[in-house]
Structures are given as structure tokens and as C-alpha cells.
Write a structure and sequence with these properties.
about 450 residues, alpha/beta, UDP-N-acetylmuramoyl-L-alanine:D-glutamate ligase, Protein-Tyrosine Phosphatase, Chain A, 2 domains, six-stranded mixed beta sheet, 17 strands, about 40% helix, globular
Length: about 450
């Protein structure tokens, strides 16, 4: 029998098959497993920014309404088991071992005709089988990449959700916003309602067209439902929700940032669609579920330490982080630690953040796609900013702590260390700050 270490090593080793978008391999595997994805109701969440937060909020509202709820998200930050949860409890290491051994046998039978499964295809099947065997009522499923050819796109959800779409994964999804939108709109199914964030005009047009062709009702933020920010700060966000039929005042979520208003409103609208028709609906579940949501690594202030963690990994997310710092953390002297993947828009991520920092430290998480710290420093220099480099997250944090507590001439603002640029960077930082590590030396854990 496999150990947990060998099971996760086997899964991570599937990375050698790279990213192969397509549904054939996953479809054959799920058929061999008895089509577990048909044994629960689901919500499918795609987009570029905010899909993880939105998925977590939907799951939390469903739980508050008394349902048994699965949540499948990616990537993980510290532990592989973060990816698959039921009622906010991560899959156990024993279940990872058992399911890996079982699915591995079926995967071997498929490989000669269809090719080897990728990491994400295998883990998607694992999540669906785990949910089915544990009799979840609902599964909230986050797309890994794109949508149309993503392994998760074999569910037929009760609601499809599309968060804000921007440029990302161009090497797989296309160079233009229209190409990327077309891939993400591929989750839209016939007669399945679509809840969508406000989008760029070209993106909205593509989503409207796909929804119309699919005879799917489309609910667009800002047109069919909306939110109004009441307050936001380090402890969370308060807002009002209104879709004409339902009005909720002073909703609260512990997720910080103005952008979470849109994510929360998408989640509320999706939840209300889940509960429409003859199914029960408990309005209190909206309020209770949002207030109880847990989703770390997004504007997360580390308790008892002058450290803020945020996994901003593209320009839009970096702009949201920058805006939050300007509005709510202006009194602090910012010490920036950034580790970014080499295939990301490095200049676009750095541009809104560098002007806020008194000290800049570049590093790299232990992951194959990480940009070398020296390269990040060169980007900063081209933008007119000096920086330091550290080969590891641990070394970067030591430099940052030295800078935070170094004697300062005159009256100096208190220091705040902001760690950002990638969820892999944030994950390693969380591990160093004491969160349980699971095979940190195997962190080649995959971006999806």
C-alpha cells in the first residue's frame, strides 16, 4: 500500500505530462469510475480573478442552509489536501492514498488509447469520486484553466458562474481577450442559468451570445443584480445586495477589499439560483454563510505579526492589492516581498506595487516556473526602483524583518511586510509562519 508521501509524489509526477487541455481522458476515466459527477448537484465557477473567493462563498452559504457541500479549488498554498473539502474539512491523507491507488488502476487502462492523465485530470476525478462517496448534496467546482476544455467541464451544473475575465494563461487560452472569453464561456450549458460579473464589452458580447445560443438565462452584475459597498477594512467587507426580487442590507464577509463586493454578489445570486423553484431557500443562509466564509491568502493579515499575505498573480489582482494598501494601510511603511511566476506579466504585476514600498525584496518560491529574483530586480530597475534579492522565501523574510525593525531616523511609520506575487510565494510564507506543511520539498505542486 502507498504511503501518503508516495501517493502525493505520484500525483505530482504526473506534471511530466504537462498541461493537455481536452475532455477525452477525463471523460473516459469518469465513465470507468461510474460517472460520480452525476451523483451530486453542482455549481461551476470560471473566470480570471475572484473565482476561488466566489466559490468559497457559495459553498459557505449552501452549508449554512444545511446541505452537505463539497468544494474543489486550485491551486493549494501549503497542503495538497486544501484542494478537496467537504463542509470546510480537507480530504484526509488516508483518503488521498486510497483514492490514488484506486484511480491509478483505472488510469492505466485508459492510457494506451488516450494517453497518460495529467495531474489536474487525475485530481478532478479524485474530487468527484470523493464527493459522490461521501454523499454531498452540492459540489462547488472551480475551473482549473479556461473552461471549455478544462477537466471540470464534465459536470452539468445547476448554475454556471463567470467572474471577472482578464488576460492570463495566453499560451493555452489565446492572445486576445476575445479568445480567452470564448474559452471561459465554454462552461455555459444548455438551459443552465449563468451568473456573470461585469465585463469588458467584447467579453460581455461573447458571453451573451453563448448564453443565448444555449437558451440559458444570463444574470449580469450591474444590470440584473448589484451591490453597494458600505465599508471595508482589514477585518472584512460590509455591503448591500439587490436583484429586484431579493434585497439584503448590511451583509458582511470577512474577506477584505472592495473587489469582494462583486464576488460576494455573484455568490449570492448563484446561491439564490440554486435555491429557486421547488427547492428550499433559507434567506438567513445568505447572511450566515457570507459571515462564516474562510478563504486565506487574500488580503490576509497574519495574527500577531506585521505581515499581510495576498496571492496577487496578475495585474488586475495587483491593482486591487495596491488600491487596498493606499486606502487602508497608508500609515504603514511597506516592505514588499514578491515572488512571481516567469510566465506571468511581471511588469504589470509590479507597476502598481513598487511605488508603495520603502523596501523591495525579490525572491522565488520552490517551484519550477518561478522567475529568478534577479530578473524581477531587473524589471524593477527598468521601472526606476532599487531592490534586494533573496534566493529563498525564508531569506527574504529575514531581510524583511531586519528592515522592519531596523532603527529609523526621526518619526517613522510602523512597518508592514506585504508578501505577494503568487499563491506559491504566499504558501511557502504561510508554511514558514507555522502552518502545517505537507511535503514542502515536493512543492512542484502545479498551478491548477
Amino acid at each position: 500500500m502507498m504511503s501518503y508521501t508516495s501517493a502525493v509524489s505520484y500525483l505530482y509526477d504526473l506534471q511530466k505530462h504537462s498541461i493537455k487541455l481536452g475532455l477525452e481522458r477525463t471523460e473516459k476515466l469518469l465513465t470507468a469510475l461510474g460517472e460520480p459527477q452525476r451523483r451530486f448537484r453542482s455549481v461551476h465557477v470560471a473566470g480570471t480573478n475572484g473565482k476561488g473567493s466566489t466559490a468559497a462563498m457559495i459553498a459557505s452559504m449552501l452549508m449554512a442552509d444545511g446541505f452537505n457541500v463539497g468544494l474543489f479549488t486550485s491551486p493549494h498554498m501549503v497542503s495538497f489536501t486544501e484542494r478537496v473539502r467537504i463542509n470546510n474539512v480537507q480530504i484526509s491523507e488516508a483518503d488521498v492514498v486510497q483514492l490514488t491507488e484506486e484511480i491509478k488502476e483505472f488510469a492505466a487502462g485508459i492510457a494506451p488509447q488516450s494517453g497518460e492523465l495529467t495531474f489536474f485530470e487525475f485530481v478532478t476525478a479524485m474530487a468527484f469520486l470523493y464527493f459522490a462517496r461521501n454523499n454531498v448534496d452540492w459540489a462547488v467546482v472551480e475551473v482549473g484553466m479556461g473552461g471549455r476544455l478544462d477537466a471540470t467541464n464534465l459536470i452539468t451544473p445547476a448554475v454556471s458562474v463567470i467572474t471577472a475575465i482578464s488576460y492570463d494563461h495566453r499560451e493555452f487560452l489565446g492572445d486576445t481577450l476575445a479568445d480567452i472569453a470564448s474559452e471561459k464561456a465554454g462552461i455555459i450549458k444548455t438551459n443552465v442559468p449563468v451568473v456573470c460579473s461585469s465585463q469588458e464589452p467584447v467579453v460581455e458580447q461573447i458571453i451573451r451570445s453563448k448564453a443565448s445560443l444555449s437558451s440559458s438565462a444570463l444574470f449580469l452584475y450591474g444590470a440584473d443584480f448589484s451591490g453597494r459597498l458600505k465599508s471595508t477594512g482589514l477585518t472584512g467587507t460590509t455591503f448591500d445586495y439587490d436583484d429586484g426580487d431579493h434585497i439584503f442590507a448590511d451583509l458582511y464577509t470577512p474577506l477584505a477589499g472592495e473587489h469582494q463586493v462583486i464576488n460576494a454578489c455573484l455568490a449570492v445570486k448563484a446561491f439564490l439560483n440554486c435555491m429557486s423553484g421547488p427547492r428550499r431557500q433559507t434567506p438567513d443562509a445568505v447572511r450566515e454563510g457570507l459571515a462564516a466564509v474562510q478563504w486565506p491568502g487574500r488580503l490576509e493579515l497574519v495574527q500577531g505579526r506585521p505581515i499581510l499575505l495576498d496571492g496577487a498573480h496578475n495585474p488586475k489582482a495587483a491593482n486591487a492589492l495596491s488600491e487596498f494598501i493606499r486606502k487602508h494601510l497608508a500609515k504603514y511603511r511597506i516592505i514588499l516581498i514578491a515572488g512571481i511566476m516567469a510566465d506571468k506579466d511581471i511588469a504589470g504585476i509590479l507597476s502598481p506595487l513598487l511605488p508603495l514600498a520603502s523596501d523591495i525584496i525579490f525572491t522565488a518560491p520552490n517551484y519550477g516556473r518561478s522567475a529568478p529574483p534577479g530578473l524581477l530586480s531587473e524589471h524593477a530597475a527598468s521601472l526606476g526602483f532599487q531592490s534586494k534579492v533573496a534566493s529563498t522565501i525564508s531569506a527574504a523574510m529575514s531581510l524583511a524583518m531586519d528592515a522592519a525593525f531596523a532603527p529609523q531616523p526621526g518619526q517613522q511609520a510602523p512597518a508592514l511586510i506585504v508578501i505577494t506575487g503568487s499563491f506559491f510565494t504566499v504558501g511557502e510564507a504561510k508554511e514558514l509562519l507555522g502552518e502545517k506543511a505537507v511535503l514542502g520539498d515536493l512543492r512542484e505542486g502545479y498551478s491548477r
